[in-house]
Amino acid sequence: MARSTTTSTPAASPRLWLESPRTPSPVVHGCWWPRSADPAAELPALVLALDALGSPIVRVRVSAAGWSRRPHEVDVAGRPVTVGYFSGQSTGLLTASCAGGGALAVRVVPWAGPREADWDVPESRAAAS
Q: Where is the composition biased (Low complexity) (predicted)?
């Protein structure tokens, strides 16, 4: 079972829950609640959090639906990360490819619009090691 900790800077970090690193080969590595429909604003912090699980993320694949724009590359701490948008991919799934050859799957809870601030959405959580 995964343990969670809350970060002290929720605005700077993604709303994210990650499976415990001790979980052997999870199908889904976590769940992410973006704060907007802008991938350039949302993906860099997510990628940095996923980098901590292993090899650096080099490519992200998301659904073509639900984003306000579609940049094909985002800057993550000074390095480019390629973003691919696919009409056949579920809006509820993000797949990240690692430099070392692996991949991570993250469940995405799509941004629901300005009224989402009224919801009880968890703040950032990452599995403790």
A: 1-15
